[in-house]
């Protein structure tokens, strides 16, 4: 089962919720955690994995064989990003405009185009002390496209457990989504089974929550809400959830102690163990809801 | 020769548009006969790579030289690969395509010797 933790607005507590959910789940289940916020991954600050594997990833950009090219211009015509230009007897490729979609390669009547990896980021992976298989995508500075890195991250498979290792429990994947409501968030949700939406009860939290709910609905994914910093703002998020059939699965109050624990790199359930049963219930709610 | 001038409008009297990739249109003038046509720029609202697309467009129009106010690095490279001369006209003073043509005929336009600025691409 694949659970995405998303929010819309940044800083609502996605990583706080995702990491605590992972820690609680790892007590009984086999957990795989993907930090999908490739622009600023930070779940490792709470789960403390040993990241011993690093793999460069990127997009496949076209390289044109000048001997085979007839300068017909088909590649430039099909490119939606103007990343390839054919003028006279020359074909120019602009790597930084290329999205690596492969349309030019596919459409070239002379099969004159081959593809070469242009590195845009890295997948770091490893394990936590609790046995959580952990991977994060990190986009290189200066790059603008997170989606190709996310596609690679979702394909990542952890090394198999040592022979004789206990394989009990359910296989759970938790994806910590990037903030916002753009392509990387959509890609993070694609192929998931449930979207857990972390919001704060403020007009900004509500505004962005609605955008992410719309994406989840478009993808046909069930969703539930966690209200973080409960007690601030107003009741508009709760009212919206009620009228939109979105269950509120957990409320985490605004408390200085929680903020201090997060600032010191501790998962919420470790710093405040009284939340362990709450997160266990949250997890079982999600699993039962999806399997229903 | 055929000269393409970036303009905002549909005639030789239309104002000069100092932007190249996102110019509204191009006025194509035959500098020998004075005959002109105008062509809407397909790249005006491109999400990215407008300069590349506009450069290919003026190449397809058969222009041998182009006049604009600035060229981004990709537009510059594409025009250069197409052997199209890149000329600069100041965009500050309001003038028409006809004024630009007069400056060209008088030999007052300066060739661009490189991209005028960095790329605009952001995502």
Describe this structure in words.
The complex is a heterodimer of chains A (292) and B (123). Chain A has 2 domains: 210 residues, Rossmann fold; 60 residues, Alpha-Beta Plaits. Chain A is built from 11 helices and 11 strands. In chain A, the strands form 2 sheets. Chain A has a 9-stranded mixed sheet with strand order 3-6-7-2-8-1-9-10-11, sandwiched between helices. A two-stranded antiparallel ribbon of chain A has the order 4-5. In chain A, strand 6 and strand 7 form a beta hairpin. In chain A, helix 1 packs across helix 11 and helix 5 runs parallel beside helix 6. Chain A is globular, with a radius of gyration of 22 Å. The mean pLDDT of chain A is 95. Chain B has one domain: 2-Layer Sandwich (Nucleotidyltransferase, domain 5). Helices cover 24% and strands 22% of the residues of chain B. Chain B has 3 helices and 6 strands. In chain B, strand 4, helix 2 and strand 5 form a beta-alpha-beta unit. The longest helix of chain B is centred in the middle third of the chain and has 11 residues. The radius of gyration of chain B is 13 Å and the shape is globular. Chains A and B meet through strand 4 of A and helix 1 and helix 2 of B.
Key traits:
heterodimer; A: 292 residues; alpha/beta; Rossmann fold; Alpha-Beta Plaits; 2 domains; 9-stranded mixed beta sheet; two-stranded antiparallel sheet; globular; B: 123 residues; Nucleotidyltransferase, domain 5; 6-stranded mixed beta sheet; 3 helices; 24% helix; 22% strand
């Amino acid at each position: 089962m694949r659970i995405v933790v998303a929010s819309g607005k940044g800083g609502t507590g996605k990583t706080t919720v995702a990491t605590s959910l992972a820690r609680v789940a790892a007590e009984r289940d086999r957990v795989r955690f993907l930090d999908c916020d490739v622009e600023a991954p930070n779940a490792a600050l709470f789960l403390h994995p040993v990241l011993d594997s690093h793999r460069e990833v990127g997009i496949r950009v076209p390289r044109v064989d000048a001997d085979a090219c007839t300068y017909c211009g088909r590649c430039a015509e099909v490119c939606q990003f103007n990343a390839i230009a054919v003028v006279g007897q020359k074909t120019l490729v602009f790597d930084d405009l290329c999205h690596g979609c492969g349309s030019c390669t596919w459409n070239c009547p002379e099969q004159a185009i081959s593809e070469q990896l242009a590195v845009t980021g890295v997948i770091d992976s490893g394990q936590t002390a609790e046995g959580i298989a952990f991977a994060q995508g990190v986009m290189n500075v200066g790059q603008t496209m997170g989606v190709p890195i996310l596609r690679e991250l979702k394909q990542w498979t952890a090394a198999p457990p040592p022979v004789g290792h206990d394989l009990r429990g359910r296989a759970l994947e938790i994806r910590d989504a990037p903030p916002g409501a753009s392509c990387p968030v959509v890609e993070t949700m694609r192929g998931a089974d449930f979207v857990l939406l972390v919001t704060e009860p403020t007009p900004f939290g509500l505004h962005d929550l609605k955008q992410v709910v719309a994406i989840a609905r478009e993808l046909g994914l069930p969703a539930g809400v966690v209200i973080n910093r409960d007690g601030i703002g107003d009741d508009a998020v709760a009212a919206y959830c009620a009228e939109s059939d979105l269950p509120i699965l957990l409320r985490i109050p605004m408390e200085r102690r929680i903020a201090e624990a997060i600032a010191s790199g501790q998962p919420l359930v470790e710093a405040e163990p009284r939340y362990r049963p709450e997160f266990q219930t949250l997890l079982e709610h999600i699993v039962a809801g999806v399997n229903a | 020769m055929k000269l393409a001038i970036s303009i905002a409008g549909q005639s030789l009297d239309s104002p000069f548009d100092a932007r190249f990739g996102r110019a509204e249109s191009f006025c194509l003038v035959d500098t020998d006969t004075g005959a002109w046509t105008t062509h809407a720029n397909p790249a005006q609202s491109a999400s990215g790579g407008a300069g590349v697309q506009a450069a290919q467009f003026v190449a397809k129009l058969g222009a041998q030289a182009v006049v604009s106010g600035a060229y981004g690095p990709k537009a510059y490279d594409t025009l250069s690969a197409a052997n199209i001369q890149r000329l600069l006209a100041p965009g500050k003073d309001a003038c028409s395509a006809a004024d630009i043509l007069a400056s060209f005929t008088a030999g007052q336009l300066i060739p661009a010797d490189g991209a005028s600025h960095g790329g605009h691409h952001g995502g």
